[in-house]
Input
Amino acid sequence: MPEMPEVQGLVAFLGERAVGRSITRTNVGAIAALKTYDPPETALHGAEITASTRRGKFILLSCGDDLHLVFHLAKAGWLRWYEMLPTTLIKPGKSPIALRVALNDDSGFDLTEAGTKKSLAVYVVRDPNDVPGIARLGPDPLEKSFDRSAFSALLEGRRTQIKGLLRDQSVIAGIGNAYSDEILHAARMSPYAIAATLSDDEVDRLFDAMRTTLTDAVTEASGKPPADLKDAKRGGMQVHARRGEACPVCGDTVRSVFFADRSLEYCPTCQTGGKPLADRRLSRLLK
Output
């Protein structure tokens, strides 16, 4: 799943390639991906893209102040850029293409989604806050105003596991499964730690790890075309998706805990005092 650093990389890329160009046409390949009907997606035709921005994991292409193409790539979505957009006909329901956007210099992009579980979402709105997922977002973890004090205030009274809290978009926007693993590893903290019980030192470590991990990942994604962003993400991971490999910090074996539709990865020596975590459904919580 693309998370905030990769989404920011896509936003920067579109800022260079799409901003200043006009949308000549759009083709919807997956009707279920289009979540709005007013304005219609045809309202984008002829509109000039004036800005490329991000809210959490949402990408916003603005056409002035009152028309915005907003999309969320979900778990298996991606953006495929073309300097020369293909002329092949998109058959709804017959390809992985959810939306095609053509620009007035013959370039453009497809929003694609792999797999059978379709969650990619596209919105055409007058105000980005009309998108329910945007309206519910918490603060961006890299905003200057989101300092250590603001972060600590979010943790107060929350009797939830820190792994889940970092992934909760209504609490902090943009962090998903992969970067929450990386942040917790850098902070030397169990994914099962309870947010409200963290000491001041643990809050310090976690906040610093969050800012450093995300800042480094955004820097790594900067300037890369969409085709290279996934490999850049995988290459920078210390523990996520590295089950069975040696932890680059201590040399212990990276372990996993499996859930219905995902897993988390961690290092026992760095994060849980050497104790392997059992499946969340069977184990007591580690603090």
